[in-house]
Write a structure and sequence with these properties.
Elements (H helix, E strand, L loop, with lengths): L6 E6 L1 H5 L12 E2 L2 E2 H4 L2 H6 L1 H16 L5 H15 L3 E6 L5 H4 L6 E2 L2 E8 L8 E2 L22 E5 L10 H10 L2 E5 L11 H7 L3 E6 L12 E5 L2 H17 L2
Parallel strand pairs: 1-4, 1-9, 4-5, 9-10, 10-11
Antiparallel strand pairs: 2-3, 6-7, 6-8
The protein binds ligand BJW and zinc ion.
Length: 250
């Protein structure tokens, strides 16, 4: 790489926040109070029982507020800052709705599955009302916040099964196809189209680094793929130090 610009793409999932005390979706058997993830994260689930879904997100919001970014979020921020200072490019794409990347100082984080702190009218197409006011404070059992414009239920601005990503997928595949280094942290690769992002990176012959307890991606060419087993809060900070130093003294 030498003097040339390095283009890094960081792609994160629930595993990066596990070390902050935020439960993942599928490790802990994929159930929330005996409900399947699909029941609390789908438009059908919301239609069936909006109260259950509001409860789910309010509990998760409260949990997130009580958690702090961990060493792997800070390592991502350090790498992004290093890139900025040295004229390299670094994009961060997360599936997480928890905002811990921003709270650790990362910038321009792309939330493909939305964010837990924004809300929109469930009548997305014909109304479109959005707010970042904290509606969890208004929500109480059976008192679901309603849209001030049309009276329909409000919902968190997150992406449920069957819904389109919060960011245009072409924009993302373009970023993936342009990167030289793709760093994947803590995702099970079970959910599409997010899990295809590293595959697009590999089309561009990018060097792929996966950080996970167990390897989730198996598609990569061995010479271009490296798997680091363990908790991301331990493996990632070490990797970032080494990466920065290696590039610095090249
Ligand atoms: C650690 C660790 C530590 C633990 N250190 N690591 C093609 C094929 C098959 C299916 C589909 C397909 N295309 C679309 C689909 C359908 C569907 C889908 O993928 N279904 C599969 C489940 C079968 N996809 C969709 O519906 C998507 N939409 C779509 O495709 O729309 C098409 C469309 C086009 C045009 C018009 C309309 C529609 C949308 C998917 C939305 C997913 N939403 C959720 C909820 C978001 C809000 C919320 O957070 O509540 O996103 S579901 C949930 O899964 C959440 C996550 O972002 C996502 C991924 O989970 P993640 O992050 O990978 O977590 P886990 O728990 O699975 O894994 C944790 C990992 O961390 C593990 O690997 C651990 O080992 C690791 N780990 N501790 C490092 N300390
Ligand atoms: Zn409305």
């Amino acid at each position: 790489m030498g003097e040339s610009i390095i283009n890094i793409l960081i792609f994160t999932g629930a595993g990066i926040s596990a070390d902050s005390g935020i439960p993942t979706f599928r490790d802990s058997n994929g159930l929330w109070e005996n409900h399947k993830v699909e029941d609390v994260a789908s438009p059908q689930g919301f239609e069936r029982d909006p109260n259950l879904v509001w409860n789910f997100y309010k509990q998760r919001f409260n949990n997130v507020q009580n958690c702090e970014p961990n060493a792997s979020h800070y390592a991502v921020t350090k790498l992004q800052k290093w890139c900025e200072d040295n004229g390299h490019a670094c994009h961060i794409i997360t599936q997480n709705i928890d905002n811990l990347h921003e709270r650790s100082g990362s910038q321009n984080v792309m939330h493909i599955h939305g964010t837990i702190t924004a809300f929109n009218c469930n009548n997305k197409w014909s109304c479109g009302f959005k707010t970042s006011e904290n509606l969890y404070e208004q929500y109480a059992e059976d008192l679901i916040p309603e849209c001030p414009k049309c009276g329909q239920y409000m919902r968190p601005s997150v992406v449920w099964f069957g819904e389109q990503l919060a960011i245009n997928f072409d924009t993302i595949t373009t970023l993936a196809e342009q990167c030289d280094v793709c760093i994947i942290i803590g995702t099970s690769a079970q959910v599409q189209p997010a899990a295809s992002i590293p595959v697009h990176a590999s089309y561009n012959n990018a060097k792929i680094f996966e950080f996970n307890l167990d390897q989730a991606f198996h598609l990569m060419d061995n010479r271009k793929y490296s798997f680091q087993a363990g908790k991301a809060c331990e493996t990632l900070p070490r990797f970032v130090e080494e990466f920065i130093n290696k590039e610095k003294y090249k």
